[in-house]
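Posting for a labmate who doesn't have an account.
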Amino acid sequence: MNSNSLEETIRLQREKLTALLGKELYQIAMQCTPKLKDRNELEQVLYNVFPRLTYCKHLYVLNDNGKQLTSNVNQSGTDNTHFDRERMDRPYMQGIIGTTDFKLSDAYISRNRKRPSFTAIQVIRNSQGGVVGFLGADFDIRELPGIKKSYEEPKYWRQIKADPAIRNVLFNQERTESLLDKHLDDVVHIMNELITEHGVFHGKIHYSSNRATIWETDDPFTYRILSIDELIDPDICLAYPSCPYHERAIVPAKEVASIFKIFSELRFADENIYLRAGSLNVINGMVGLNFSCDGSHYMRFDEFLEKNLDFWFGESDELLVDNFQ
C-alpha cells in the first residue's frame, strides 16, 4: 500500500472494507426484505450467510425506527439478550439516511470484549424504495481481512511538542554533567563499532541517565540495555558477533560516527536546552532527538547532517524556546 500519511493509509483501508462489506450486506438486506415480519425466518437468513462471512461477529435486523427485530446472530447461534434493543441513538446510526444506503462506522472499543471494532449498517428498502429497516453487522478489527503492507513512517522532519509544565521552568534548570558526558568520545566510537561491525541497526544513547539501548538485526524483537560501564569498555564488542553492515541500511557506514558526534555537540551547546537522548536507526535512516525541554524531533539522517547548531539554537532565547517547545 503506497501512502503518504497515516490518515491516508486508514482512508484507503476503509475504502477497501466499504467495497467488501457494502456489496455483501446489500445482498443480505435484499434477502431480508420479504421476511421482516417473521423473526425466525430473518434469523435463519442471517445464520445462513456466516459460511461466507466468517470475519463477522454479529448480524441483526432493526425496524425503520431502529428497534431490533432479531437476536444477535453469530456463527454459533443467537444471543437473545439484544432482541428489542433500541439502537437509533447509537453513533453508527447517525446520518445513515443520506447519499448512500451503507455506512461503516468509525472504529470504537467494544463494550464487552474491549477490542477495536466496527459496525456496518445497510438500509433495507421495499420494492417502492421506502426505508423499512436496517441490517447491522459488527466486526472485530483483528478478524477483518488484513491490509497487505503496514503503514510506513514519513521521512520528513517531525517535531513533537513538549510538556508545557517542563517548558515553563526551562530556564530555571541547568545541565548537570553525567558520567556518560565525561566519556563521550569513547561512547561515540563504541556505538559506531557496534552499528557498523556488529549488527546493531538501532542505537539510542540516554545521556542524562548514563545508558544506551540497542537492537540487533539478528534479534530485532529484543533490545539490550548497556550501562555506562559497558558503554565505555571496548570489550563490549566481544559480546556481539562481527557481521557485515546490513544491506538494508540506508545510512552510509562512514556517517554513523558523524551523527553521534553531532549528538555530543547538541548535548553541550547550551546549558538550559540540551540533548537528553539521541537515537539512530540505520535501516529507516531516521534520527530521533529528545531535549531537556521535553521537545522531540525526528528527521532523516541526511537532513540532520546538513543542519548546524544555528538551526537548532538560533540567535535568541525566544527562538531557542520556539525551536524546542
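Reply:
Got it, the C-alpha cells are right above this. Confidence is low (pLDDT under 50) at residues 316-321.
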